[in-house]
Structures are given as C-alpha cells and as structure tokens.
Amino acid sequence: MKRGFILGKFMPPHAGHVTLVQSARALVDELTVLVCSLPDNPIPGESRLAWMRELHPDCRVVAHTEPAPQQPEDDPAFWDIWTRIVAKQHPEKIDYLFAGEAYGAELATHVGGMFVPLGGRILRTDRNGIGGLSGEAIRAAPWSYWDYLPHPVRNHYALTVCLHGIESVGKSTLAELLADHYRTTFVPEYGRSHCETHGTDCREEDLMLIGEAQQAMITAARPWANRLLIADTDALMTAAWSQMMIGYMPDQLICHRKADLYLMLGNDAPFVDDGTRVYKTPEKREKFQRIARNALELSRTNFVDVSGSWDERFKTAVVAIDVLIEQRARGRAA
After folding, report:
1. Contact between residue 82 and residue 107 where contact means Cβ atoms under 8 Å apart
2. pTM, full prediction
3. What pLDDT does 281 receive?
C-alpha cells in the first residue's frame, strides 16, 4: 500500500492546491493532508480544514493548530519540530511526500518518503494561471482570481445583496434587473411559492419553514454567483412577516447569516393586488413597513433606503452596490 503526505496552509484553497491534492491522490492508496494554522491567521484554520475536507472527501484531512516556527531561520530546531508534528499526524511510513514548492525536498529528508514535486508552481510554468496562484495575492483581491476559487471558498468571498420590503414594492422585478446588470444570478422568494401552494394562512411552523428554506436557497446559490449574489428576500423579512402574522419574531429567523447589504424598498410603489397579497389597506401596509425596517435596525444590518420611480430605484441600488464593492476591495487590499 502506497501512502502519501501533503502539508500546507491552504489560505485559502485554490486551483493550485486542488490540482496538487487530486494529482497526489491518484498516485497513492491513502493520502493525508495536513492543514496548518495559527490563531492570528487572516482565515481561521477551522474554515480551511472544513473546506479541504469538503473538497477532498477521499483523503484524510487533519489539522495542526499549535504555534510552530514558520521558517527554518525562526528556530534552530525548526526541522526537529516539524518532524515531530508530521509524525504525530502521520505515524505510518510515508512513501511519497508531495509538494508544489522546493521545501518539499528538505522536508522529505527529515520525515521520510520520496519527494514528488507536482504542479505548475514548482515547475515555474503557467505563471498567469494555476502555476502563478498564491494565497497572499488571492486574499488581497479574491474577485480577481474568481475562476480559480473552488466553491467553498467562493461562498466565503461572495457578497450577498438582499432586497427587503413588504408586498408589492417591486423586490422581484428589481432583483432580476440587478442580476442582469451584474451578470450574476439571483435567488427568488420561496415564501411566494409556499403560499401559492399551501395558502396564505401561515402558522409558526409555516413561517419557520419559509425562512429556513429561503436561507438554504441563498447558501446553496452563493458559490454559483458571479462574485455577487442577489437575493429577493431572506429570513429577516420572514421575521417581519412573523411579527405581523403571529405577533412575534422567532429567534431562529434572526440568527442566520446576514446579507452584506440590504436594499430597503420604500412603500411608495403602486400597489398591485395579484391575488396573493395579505395586507392591502394603507394602514396595514404602513405598519408592516415599520416592522420590516425595524427588523433591519434591530439586527444592525448594513442597509440603504430605495424609493422613487422604478428607474430611480434601480439607480439608487446600483450606486449602493458599487460602493459596497469598492469598500470591500479596499478593505481586503489594505
């Protein structure tokens, strides 16, 4: 039986890492991947470990989280320390030690195994593609390397913009327009499908299902977005519906991952009764609007107000999203 070993930070995992692991896995019967992390790393080790396990379910993916020297010049006992770390994580004999960088040759002399230098990085080929990828460059500008990020990492770096507002304020229409403008996808409203199927007389269990289903759709769609995901609504709006329908907001509807930006649509759009509307009078709609806005404020979300004509709404939304993108780009490059 051939056993292989790889270690790295995978911060974050990218196409170079994935192709390295997949190539190595094809050459051995068992492959161990050691994910190394420190408490102050810019991407938590727990996240990277989970990503690598998701990406490589046929490998033994383990973690080392204790402080250790990162370079030979950091500690005279550098190689002894790392030999003990590797032995703890891989007590079996190592047949092949795989790496995409030259350090693998020296490491192999200490931990055992034949050094197998895989990948374009060590060969200095494809410098504008997989062979030139680096975690540091990706962390500084993740959207610039989008095509080389696996889905779990895209889920981490994608931005989510969610439309928020009561019935008949144009959320679905604006969501489609924004998705087309940013050449990405959008997540439709589950609650509408649910109510068209089961009716609008919702109890707590219906509202919980609606909110959970909406969040599940958003989570599933985020890795497929073109950097930016547009959501027609999310569980926070379901929480507002709950306040209107049953008199309170279940905690579970408020604790989900929040969008990076909410667009709070004003109640100044022409009301259209399409047969599924619940709160039709001006008084009820105004009350619902206050509750919806209050859900955003209590959750301390990042939101902007969007009102006016359809054209004005679209322009306001685009400006707000562009500001968000610019702010995130500056923040990650800093």
Report:
1. yes
2. 0.85
3. 75
